Amino acid sequence: MASNSKRRKILTLSIAALLVVAAGVAIMLFRSRDDTKRILVVLKTLDNPYYVDMKLGAERAAAELGPGVKAIIKAGNAEDDVQGQTALIYGHLDANSVDAISIAPASSTAMIPVIRRANSMSVPVIVLDTRLDAKALDDHGARYNAFIGSDNERGGELAAKFIGKKLGNVNKSVLLLEGVPTQETAITRATGFKRVQQAEFASWNVVAKTANWNRQQARQVMDTIIATQGIPAAVFACNDEMALGVVGALESAGIARAQWPPIVGFDATSEALAAVKDGRMSATVQQRPDRMGRSAVELAVEILNGGSPLRDNKIPVELIEQ
Amino acid sequence: MSVGRSWAVVTRSGIVDYRSGWLLVGCLCCLVCDLAVAPQPNIIGISWSVVRLSLPLMAVALGSAIVIAVGDIDLSPAGLISLLGVVLLVCASSGIPAWAAMVIVILIAVTVGLAHGLAVSKLGVPPLVLTLGSSFCLLGVATIVMVALQRSASRGASSTVTLVLPGSYVHSWFSMGWVWVLAPLTFISVWRHASHDGLRHLAVGSDRQAASLAAIPVPAIRMRAFIYSSALVSLGTLLLLHYQGGGWTARAGLGYELKGIAAAVIGGARISGGSLKPINVAFASLLLVAIESTTITASWITAEMQGAIIGALVVIAAVIDRTRTTHE
To answer: Within this chain, do residues A271 and A244 fall inside the same structural domain, yes or no?
Structure first.
């Protein structure tokens, strides 16, 4: 009896394995080939509306370019999900399923080996939003075909000047909420802000904290600051998600709107623009993620068609005030 | 000798069982799906990609399974992996040779494992809280060190500071990834199935009080489980670094602790302890990565659908496995 049962199990297992292998062989034999240009667009995450806007821009561009172009849009699980982005790109390179890659890198340095691999397979690479470390690129012999991004330092400067216009050069505390500390975007936005602050508003007491681009973490930081140090005189959050976290903390603390400090965000997501309109936020630095997404696909197609687009494509930023 | 008889001989040892076979069939299914969705599929490339990405997970999952087998849990891999990778960057920046860096990394991991083991077995600290807290702490330290490294690199303080491990460094020691996993896998399998100590390990997980009454050194065995787990995490870090070509961030290990536990459980580990099948844990890691790979390759699976589909497929795999086991 026991022997029969074992034999049945082995038989079932063997049949299942054979069926799967047969299905694989059949697929290999009867599959059709096409000449569609496949562009892999790898975003940092879809947890942030900024990248959702970028995704929509890329989708629109692919739809307008017609059936000969396909944008495969994927994203990591978090803003700094290097391993997720690496697996996405290696997976597609190994499967031979992409002709060009547009990537918003989760790290300025950690993605360089992946880009080098794409280079070795002659797959063009377009970098979006976050610049790669030039020295690390040189050291590792990696290269990209084009960069599309905002002038983040300029955005930080605009935010500092706006807050300066409201506060003047007084000895008050200003909360600077930074993104993931090791990311180029976080560093450049904060650098631009600090440069203007040190040059023109040196009396401010800048309290720099990180909330890793995350709304919930920003809310937690602001809750703690309100409880321990009182309401800061102004807040510059390096993205809108964190600015909205600050808004949430002020709302849940029951602080009257008249006592709210000026809150400046970055990205101009639709939610932040609504907050600026109804006065919960004072301003946001506008980027055009949808334009970046669109250019990510259009430039990739241009390169695949033998064109050589500009290497540095800066998309200007502007401050949207109430 | 027929295939059936060969299989019977192998299964009699207990090292593999029918679950192993079904897990492999699951991996084959994923591979066929990859072939179906990729436009010009490179079957060897896809398989190699899955194997390479599954090796670090196998190492971490084996460690998790060893801890789960004694009825404890280890959530520290996220922080430990992140920190160990940063330590390797520091070593490379300081001109320490790759072999010495590896030794340093393994020693740090073993020390962390020893600290966890002592706190759990001697002080009675709940492992869930301890390892979670420890993971956050290690992540924090990794961030501090990474930011300091970045500062020195941007100031040009030293031309040797590197934020990406050089190719020679990564490839010199970690390129034969499968050997690095196969050796501990074989050792753990033999230890689990053929040694007295392996049985005592499971006895502690099955019934800690009974094991204690049977004069089994429960605290020592629990402590050892944490040390093995951390040592395997260090191996996982080296393999992950190799997979990523030397690129690293201060939070690179986030999520690995849960993936490791998922692979251990799909591989047959009971959360309450007392069960460990190393080969199945390895195959389960392969299956998890194969599922992930399929969702990556399929262009119709959009970015927002990806997480939901991976989760749903893992749940379906667990339900099929449970139904099959109950039926048998």
So the answer is: yes
